[in-house]
């Protein structure tokens, strides 16, 4: 079995004139066991989800991490409930006779009884479970926008979101995300099917929210995403970016649930070119 030297070849020496002695820390060798491999895989997964705060990024709320990790991207309420401890996760933990991993176990028990809260009523998992669309990098290009002189297009066609359902109170809006690389993506929002992670694979983003566009012209923006919970740095990111792309941000309605409209207006003014 191959071995991994997790400490490098760490040698720490200290010389004292009166002793002329050299001390060295022992090299720690850890076997590459299945448990170690699972730990490394989990650590790598979490590392990829960590936002770079100094770039103004925001990451996915940890309660959605199982949804991202699940190969079928089942919705997080079905996986771990509203409290993060219920759903299929709780039922799997209770089945001490099984050696299957969580997602394999769910595939084997599609009708297991689950609840959304620890003490809540139970229902068959298959009754309410839904799968979130996570599109490939190649497919995501279909939702990448270009902005020229304030005009929004996808694939050369003017973008219009007014026919979309959006969120309650945000009818005619679509989901918008600014990937950490700077590209902007706009796609439908549909709870349980299309979420802000649909083109990001759960990677951190520079901004996320809901946008209304009419015949290629941006009309409103809501800083709103359950997965990414964007705050002031993300609002600043998108306002600066839009202004640089020729969007007159003074002419659009901007809302942020955690900020007063007076504070939003001040920020819009600061970010205007």
Can you put this structure into words, describing what you see?
This protein is of the alpha+beta class. It folds into 3 domains: 3-48, no CATH class; 76-128, no CATH class; 137-271, no CATH class. Helices cover 27% and strands 18% of the residues. The protein has 9 helices and 12 strands. It has helices at residues 34-49, 65-69, 76-80, 87-94, 102-108, 125-128, 137-140, 232-244, 261-271; strands at residues 3-5, 29-31, 113-114, 123-124, 146-148, 151-154, 157-158, 174-179, 184-187, 205-214, 217-223, 253-256. A 5-stranded mixed sheet has the order 9-8-10-11-12. A 3-stranded antiparallel sheet has the order 5-6-7, with no helix packed on it. A two-stranded antiparallel sheet has the order 1-2. Strand 6 (151-154) and strand 7 form a beta hairpin. The longest helix has 16 residues, at 34-49. The radius of gyration is 24 Å and the shape is globular. The model is unreliable at 1-23 (pLDDT under 50).
């Amino acid at each position: 079995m191959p071995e991994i030297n997790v400490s490098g070849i760490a040698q720490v020496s200290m010389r004292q004139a009166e002793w002329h002695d050299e001390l060295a820390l022992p090299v720690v060798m850890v076997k590459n066991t299945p448990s170690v491999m699972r730990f490394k895989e989990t650590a790598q997964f979490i590392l990829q989800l960590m936002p770079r705060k100094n770039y103004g990024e925001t990451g996915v709320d940890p309660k959605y991490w199982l949804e991202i990790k699940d190969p079928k991207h089942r919705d997080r309420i079905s996986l771990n409930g509203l409290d993060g401890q219920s759903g299929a996760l709780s039922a799997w933990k209770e089945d001490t006779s099984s050696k299957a991993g969580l997602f394999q176990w769910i595939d084997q028990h599609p009708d297991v009884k689950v609840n959304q809260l620890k003490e809540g009523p139970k229902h068959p998992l298959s009754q309410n479970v839904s799968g979130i669309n996570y599109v490939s990098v190649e497919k995501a290009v279909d939702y990448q926008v270009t902005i020229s002189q304030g005009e929004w297009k996808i694939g050369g066609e003017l973008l219009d979101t007014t026919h979309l359902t959006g969120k309650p109170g945000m009818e005619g809006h679509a989901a918008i995300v600014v990937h950490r690389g700077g590209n902007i993506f706009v796609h439908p929002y549909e709870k349980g099917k299309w979420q802000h992670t649909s083109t990001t694979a759960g990677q951190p983003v520079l901004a996320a929210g809901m946008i209304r566009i009419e015949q290629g012209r941006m009309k409103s923006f809501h800083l709103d995403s359950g997965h990414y919970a964007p705050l002031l740095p993300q609002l600043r990111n998108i306002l600066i970016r839009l202004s640089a792309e020729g969007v007159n941000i003074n002419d659009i309605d901007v809302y942020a649930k955690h900020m007063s409209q007076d504070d939003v207006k001040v920020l819009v003014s600061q970010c205007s070119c």
